[in-house]
Amino acid sequence: MSKCEFELSCHHNDTCGLTGSAAFFASIPGSFVLINGPLWCYFYAMKYIDDESSRAARCISCTGTSPSSLVYGTEKEILRGLSRIQSQGSAERVFLESNCSTGLIGDDVKGIAEEFGGPWPVYTMDSGGLKGSFEKGFARAFLRVVEEMKEGSTVPASVNVLGLSEVYLKGREEGN
Length: 176
What we know:
This protein is α/β, with parallel strands linked by helices and 176 residues long. The chain has a single domain, classed as Nitrogenase molybdenum iron protein domain (Rossmann fold, 3-Layer(aba) Sandwich). 46% of the residues lie in helices and 11% in strands. The protein is built from nine helices and four strands, in the order H-H-E-H-H-E-H-H-E-H-H-E-H. Strands 2-1-3-4 form a four-stranded parallel sheet, sandwiched between helices. The protein is globular. The two termini are 29 Å apart. Mean pLDDT is 80; it is low at 6-12 and 171-176.
């Protein structure tokens, strides 16, 4: 694909939900994102996110599924991706998100992550473009995190702000 075609794809159409959810997850310190899908989805998301977030290249990786794994399942690729994150030794939590094609396979992604048994919680989510645009992916990721939050102690006269990242303010791709 020529640079011109890539620019048209990336900057004049809605960016997919996977990119939005990866941007949200990557903005949380200590978080790692594992995109369960082909490298194309990873590079598409990174093109968008890495421009604004210097941390993205260190905390977002991809399973790099092959065409055969779209038939036989992505378990081997997921386990390999989680092992790479574990070997880095600095993750506090992992967000494992499936793209459009791997989301259609029907793998028990949560079960595969539990089978791995890493030292951190793994949050799973189907977040391909079939699930919406960047904004919808960002919002769904936010809600996914809120679902898992544990109620903690209250600090008087304080405000907890969660949900904004440097990538979300990019604006160029926002339709509104």
